[in-house]
Automatic annotation (TrEMBL):
Record's keyword terms, sorted: FAD, Flavoprotein, Oxidoreductase
Chain ranges of the FAD-binding PCMH-type domain: 48-226
One Pfam family named in its UniProt record: FAD_binding_4
Lineage start: Bacteria, Pseudomonadati, Pseudomonadota, Alphaproteobacteria, Hyphomicrobiales
Source organism (scientific name): Methylocapsa polymorpha
Name under which the protein is recorded: FAD-linked oxidase C-terminal domain-containing protein
Required cofactor names: FAD
Leader peptide range in chain numbering: none
Length: 495
C-alpha cells in the first residue's frame, strides 16, 4: 500500500481542531489521547494500521452536520466508521484526519409492518434488524458472516451481501432510502418507503460508495416475510470441478436457491474441527444449498437438486430434517473465517467475483498461484453468484510474507478480471484493491468515476486515498484534452 502525503497544516493545528470538535460534541464525544485512539487504528484488514488524528462520536444529526461543516471550512479530512468490520481497509483512519464513528447512532427508529419497512440508524447491527421484527414473521435479508457485529451503515457503504444474496440480493436490493450528510453539512434524503423515486437513481449511487460521497445518518430497509419453510442440502464431491459443475447445473435448471455456498477441503476440515457441524472431512469440496418457500415446492426442489448432485458424482448428500439441523449446516459456514484463523497467525480474505462457468478454471489457477507464491490458500465462497473469498494464509512475523501475501492476492484478483469478473463483490475496494483498479478500468473510466466524487466532495475530504489509485483534483479533470493537436468533438460549441 502506497501511503498518502500527510497534511502538515492539519497536524500543526491538531490542538485547535480537537478543541473545536469538543465544542461541537461535548463530554466524552471526542477521543484525543493516544492510548484511546489505538482502539480505532485498524479495521478488520489488520495488516494496515494508522493512528487517527482524533476520533469523534456524535450522537445527533446536528452534530454530524457541524463536524462536517467545520472540516469542510478548514480543509480537514474525514473518515466515517461503523463497527470496523471492513475487510478492504475502507474505514482505515488517517493520521492527519478526523475519524467519525457513527456507533452512537444505534436506534431502531420505526418499524412499519404495513409497508414492510424499518427505519434504523447506521450504527444498528445487521442482525439486530431481524431480531427486532422476527416476532411478526419478518426479517432483513442480507446476512454477511459478520452480521452479529457489522453495522447497517457499513453495509450501505460497501453494498454487503451474505450467504442468501443469490435469491434475495445485496444491500442495494434491500435498502429503500437513506439520509446522508454531505461534507458541507447539508442533509439530503434519498428514497423512502415508496418503491421508486423520480429523477436520477442517487440512492443506487450512494450504496456502495465506501463513505466517499457523504455520511449516512439514517437507513430505511426493506423487510421480507420469513419463508414458510426452508431445507438445506449438505453435498460432498471428490473434486472442486465437480462441485462447480453442480452449481452451474442447478442454476441452469432454473432453480434459484436461497443460498448456495462452497468450501474446499482445507476449509471443511478447519470448520468441522471448530464447530462440529457434521461436515464430511474426506471431501474435496462441499456445497450447502438451501431451498425455501412453500413446503410442497421446497420438497420438489430438494429432490431435483439431489438428483443433479448425484448425476455430478456427489459422494455424500445429507438433507436437513429439522430447522435446527439446517441452522447447524449454516453455523459451520458462518464460522469459516474464525475457523481458518486457527490455521495461521494471519490471513487475507479476498473478494473477487467471476462468471460461474469459470469457477473450475479459477480454482485451478489459484492452486497454481499458491505454488508460485509459496503460501496456502483456503477457499470459502458464495458459489451461486461467483463471489469468491479465498483466504491467503501467512505469518506477518516472517520477513517478506506479508508482501508475498499481497502479491498473491493481487494475482488472484487479476485472474478474476481476466476471466470476465470484477475486483470485488461485497467487501469494497478500500485500500486493499485501490492500486488494482486500472486492471479493470482505463483512465477514462476512472476519471468519470472521480467526477461523480467531485460532484459530492470537490475538496476530496471524505475518505481520501481510498478506491482511486491516483487522486485527481476536480480542476484537473475539467481541463480540455488535446490529442495530436486536435480537440475531441470539435463540433461541440465551447464558451
Amino acid at each position: 500500500m502506497k501511503p498518502m502525503d500527510l497534511d502538515r497544516d492539519s497536524l500543526t493545528r491538531r490542538s485547535e481542531i480537537v478543541a473545536a470538535l469538543r465544542e461541537i460534541v461535548p463530554g466524552e464525544g471526542v477521543v484525543a489521547t493516544e492510548i484511546s485512539r489505538r482502539a480505532y487504528e485498524s479495521d478488520a484488514l489488520t495488516a494496515y494500521r494508522a493512528l487517527p488524528m482524533v476520533v469523534v462520536l456524535p450522537e445527533t444529526v446536528a452534530q454530524v452536520q457541524a463536524v462536517l461543516a467545520y472540516c469542510h471550512k478548514y480543509n480537514v479530512k474525514v473518515v466515517a466508521r461503523g463497527a470496523g468490520t471492513s475487510l478492504s481497509g475502507g474505514s482505515l483512519p488517517l493520521e492527519d484526519g478526523v475519524l467519525l464513528s457513527m456507533m452512537k447512532f444505534n436506534r431502531v427508529k420505526e418499524i412499519d409492518f404495513d409497508n414492510r419497512a424499518a427505519v434504523v440508524e447506521p450504527g444498528v447491527a445487521n442482525l439486530a434488524i431481524t431480531r427486532a421484527v422476527e416476532h411478526r414473521g419478518f426479517y432483513y435479508a442480507p446476512d454477511p458472516s459478520s452480521q452479529i457485529a457489522c453495522s447497517i451503515g457499513g453495509n450501505v457503504a460497501e453494498n454487503s451481501g451474505g450467504v442468501h444474496c443469490l435469491k434475495y440480493g445485496l444491500t442495494t436490493n434491500n435498502v429503500l432510502g437513506v439520509e446522508i450528510v454531505l461534507i458541507t453539512g447539508e442533509v439530503v434524503r434519498l428514497g423512502g418507503k415508496h418503491l421508486d423515486q423520480a429523477g436520477y437513481d442517487l440512492l443506487g449511487l450512494v450504496i456502495g460508495s465506501e463513505g466517499m460521497l457523504g455520511v449516512v445518518t439514517e437507513v430505511t430497509v426493506r423487510l421480507l416475510r420469513a419463508p414458510e419453510t426452508a431445507r438445506a442440502l449438505l453435498i460432498a464431491f471428490e473434486s472442486c470441478e465437480a462441485a462447480g459443475g453442480c452449481v452451474a447445473d442447478v442454476i441452469g435448471a432454473g432453480i434459484i436457491p436461497g443460498g448456495m455456498e462452497m468450501m474446499d477441503r482445507a476449509a471443511i476440515a478447519a470448520v468441522e474441527e471448530f464447530v462440529h457441524a457434521g461436515y464430511p472431512v474426506d471431501a474435496e469440496a462441499l456445497l450447502i444449498i438451501e431451498l425455501d418457500g412453500p413446503p410442497v415446492e421446497v420438497d420438489h426442489l430438494v429432490g431435483l437438486v439431489e438428483a443433479i448432485a448425484r448425476k455430478r458424482g456427489a459422494t455424500h448428500c445429507r438433507i436437513s430434517s429439522s430447522d435446527a439441523e439446517r441452522l447447524a449446516f449454516w453455523a459451520g459456514r458462518k464460522a469459516a473465517f474464525p475457523a481458518v484463523g486457527r490455521l495461521s497467525p494471519d490471513y487475507f480474505c479476498m473478494d473477487g467475483t467471476i462468471p460461474r462457468k469459470e469457477l473450475p478454471n479459477v480454482l485451478a489457477g489459484m492452486g497454481e498461484l499458491s505454488q508460485r507464491h509459496g503460501l496456502r490458500v483456503v477457499n470459502v465462497f458464495h458459489a451461486g453468484d461467483g463471489n469468491l473469498h479465498p483466504l491467503i494464509l501467512y505469518d506477518a512475523n516472517k520477513p517478506g510474507e506479508l508482501l508475498r501475501a499481497e502479491e498473491f492476492g493481487a494475482d488472484i484478483l487479476r485472474l478474476c478480471v481476466k476471466v470476465g469478473g470484477v475486483l470485488t463483490g461485497e467487501h469494497g475496494v478500500g485500500i486493499e484493491k485501490r492500486d488494482l483498479m486500472p486492471e479493470m478500468f482505463n483512465e477514462i473510466d476512472l476519471k468519470q468515476q472521480i467526477r461523480v466524487k467531485c460532484a459530492f466532495d470537490e475538496k476530496h475530504l471524505l475518505n481520501p486515498g481510498k478506491v482511486f489509485p491516483v487522486l485527481h483534483r476536480c480542476a484537473e479533470l475539467g481541463r480540455m484534452h488535446v490529442h495530436e493537436g486536435k480537440l475531441a468533438f470539435p463540433d461541440i460549441p465551447r464558451f
